[in-house]
Here is the input.
Amino acid sequence: MSKLLNADMSRILKAKSLYYGMFITALLAVLFVFLNKEDNVFVSIPESGALVILPFFIGSVIALNVSTEFTSGAIRNKLIIGHSRVNILLSWSVCFTIVTVLFFAAYEGAAFASAAIMSYDLSALKADIVLENLLLVLVLVFTNMFLSLLICVIIEDVRSVAVMFILQFSMMMIATIGGEALSDSETAKLIFRFFPQGQMNVMSILTAPDKPWLTAICAMSAGAAMLILSIVYFRKHDMK
Amino acid sequence: MDYVLKTNALCKQYKDFKALSGATMSVPKGSIYGFVGRNGAGKTTLIRLICGMQFPTDGEFEIYGVKSTDSAISDSRKRIGAVVETPSLFPEMTAQDNLKYQYRLLGLPSFEGITELLKLVGLENTGKKKAKDFSLGMRQRLGIAVALCGNPDFLILDEPINGLDPQGIIEIRELILKLNRERNITVLISSHILDELARLATHYGFIDKGSIVREMSAEELEAACRKCIRVTVTDTSAAVRALDDMKLEYNVTGDDSIDIYAKPSITKLAASLEKEGCEILSCTERDENLEGFFISLVGGGSDE
Here is the structure.
């Protein structure tokens, strides 16, 4: 496993797509802060704004890396020299978790830094709320990451980027529209907590999340389920 | 004889299509095993099963005596290097970076040996050129270099000369011979370019419709392909008596056919057979090569 991690991590960190993606993400964060200067958006939720695009960028990096492994045949080399399929998948999970943290740091870092530079009034922010929201966003992007990984493992080639975009966007719309239409139903609310895209959309339109701990638990269970599904599929899947 | 690989009644079913139906083969240690079959005969499927990319529907195989059902099979696979279909390379990386990646995967403590490997496959001067800019032959050689990382003692090459120009074919051939002779690496090489295989292989396995139809050594193949005269006769036992009298080397190949490994006077042969009451129905000269042998073994129909 450590050999796989070392090889995968060194390759991913050398990939230009990672840095392009992080740069664009940071740029969008700065842009959002700039465009909302008048509203002083940091008063409500610090990590809001262009947040909803974060999973798409992370998903793209995952899709490009995983599809390269399949199409170049690199995954064959891993199997031939005796690495188990579970270890291959777990190594990817760890690597992309690190990638997710890097993107998250780039986005939030750029947002906070630009807010400070643009003289936002950050005095109203409470450290515990900020931390809680940041952690919730991190959990939500992790769940999205596992969804992206599952799609990439199933689709195998670069088409996974398109499938992932469509699926994530659909889930976001279902959760957002469904959440508004069924706002009185507690069951519907609970179900939509399993849709991290919808939750992130809610946060990105500057709405403070209710019961963040419950959303985090639901998102974590969804992420774990997706990881298990990926492992089950990948273990039995014939590769070319 | 020691065997590096043994398969026992391996089967692989893809939905409605049976790619392998009880393939049984043995690859002797130190050999260059030519794996011969048409397109779609099951060569690549069998290789994929051995390499762990796919799972057999039935049957099993052994690599260095370890059964495929044994958890230690992944350790046995560490002794294998393989190029399956296309070389497994990252197109955006240089030759050296591709080898470094493989070294990391293998957990090798240092990158020592990379220069030697690149030299071995003739890619030592590629510098910062990316693998995507390599010619097909260069990619193939780099694929072999990647497979050789970690000093495997069993190399599996699936159609390594497909699409190569004559110079590329010669380079790959010389490389394979070098690896086998100098490093004592056992090589399983699948191909349907039979002339090329005939220049390399010490052993052959012929596969057709998912089954191994024949395994033989190069010497056995040579004997089977010896120049001879094939006569079809009305009475083989009478013909055998006549041939024994003439002290000719022969082989009865069928109910009515005999291969005679000499150049007898046809007049004398006919007279001798007539004396025994045997009539010659036909007489043809046979000078078979690997291709002819393969066709006679599996028939000359279409691939599909």
